[in-house]
Amino acid sequence: MAVSTRGINKSLLPSAKARATIAKRLSGATGAMTTATIAEMEQRHSWFRRLSAEHRSWVTLVAQAGIDGFVRWFADPDLSGPVTSEVFGSAPRELARKISLFQTVELVRTTIEVVEDQIDEVTPKTDRPILHAAIVQYSREVAFSAAEIYARAAEMRGAWDARLEALVVDSVLRGETDETVLSRASTLGWRSTAAVVVVVGPAPTGEPAPALEAVRHAAAIAGADMLGAVQGDRMVVVLGHADLASAERALTVVSSFTGNFGPGPVVIGPAVEHLMEAATSTRAALSGFRAAAGWPEAPRPVASSDLLPERALSGDGHARRALARDLYDPLVAAGGGLLETLVTFLDAGLSVEAASRGLFVHANTVRYRLRRIHEVTGYSPTDPRDAYALRLALTLGRLVHRSAATAEA
Fold first, then answer.
1. What average pLDDT does range 30-44 have in this prediction?
2. Does an H or E element contain 235, and which?
3. What is the per-residue pLDDT across 81-135, written as a single tens digit (0 to 9) for each?
4. Which residues contact 223 (CB under 8 A, 6 or more apart)?
5. Residues of the chain by 3-state class (helix, strand, coil), percent to 5
6. Smallest Cα–Cα separation from 4: which of 141, 147, 143?
7. How open is the CA angle 61-157-144, to the nearest 5 degrees?
8. Which of 14, 69, 393, 394 could form a disulfide with 323 if both were Cys (CB 3.0 to 4.6 A apart)?
9. What Cα–Cα distance (Å) separates residue 169 from each residue in 14, 162, 165, 203, 317?
């Protein structure tokens, strides 16, 4: 980016010969200007005093290059001299990672003020106005160059972080979360050592980066750590926060960013205790995402546990065992006629009166047992959706017990 003369009244510019004479006078003072700039930086800015000797020398190089560049530019006959980004080319690229853009602006501002003071000391009064106008114009272009350098660095870091984040999410999905993956996640800002849930939904219809950033923002508002990536036709989000151990809280958090997924089901896996165990949540979320087409009326988002019937029918062995273990087995263990009452109630079309006649008991007894079934399993036989899950659990439980009995025989 070449420095322009916009903002300087060219009619007030001295001739090229006069500018060369002024520049020659200034060039003899550039060393003193640099020394004064560094002294002022040390006095003003605590962050500068904390830098190592090596890093301070880099800043000195930048200040010296800026001052020398200004003198060369002012002496140029066309005032269209050097590219101001060369000012920062005198220091290693690591400097942009060591000092922030704000600190760089402070460096430029301090240098300008010192140079202006030095100009007043080494030049006649007649030369000072045009020099002050020129230094303001030149410093503006230097500031733009600094902004461009930091913007490019941010873009490079962003692209690298996105690739690293995609690798971490892929490792989580494949159940390969070892210490190396944890270290990479920590580099990306993952701090949670508490509950972790995995969310799977359709990939956004537009560019994935803005959608992921919107999800990250919503997660940050909720106080949760977040890792995310788009893989083909799906977007995967990993969340970490102690509150996510509560299924209701997890639903609330995920609901805040569901709109950033594409059209279709958004499924939340069960909470696990640590990122190392996230494969369990991932497996359930992916299974639910694949099976959600079997329940198009499902809420959005939906917990993977609410999709157990569809997951079981689509071939998920974990879902089949969960229905048999968590619904059928507790009813068998509870006794009290609960299993028999459930079968009769379901066969009677969810009619309490018909079930009471079939069981030869009072209707209130049936109602009591139905409440007990709800307490034991967490599923209410009087709710059509829960009744569907209970019916499937009965079938699967019988099959599992028959297989176990056959194996023992």
1. 87
2. strand 234-240
3. 445 556 665 555 556 667 776 777 778 788 888 888 888 887 778 777 878 777 7
4. 241, 243
5. 70, 5, 25
6. 141
7. 50
8. 393
9. 63, 10, 6, 15, 24
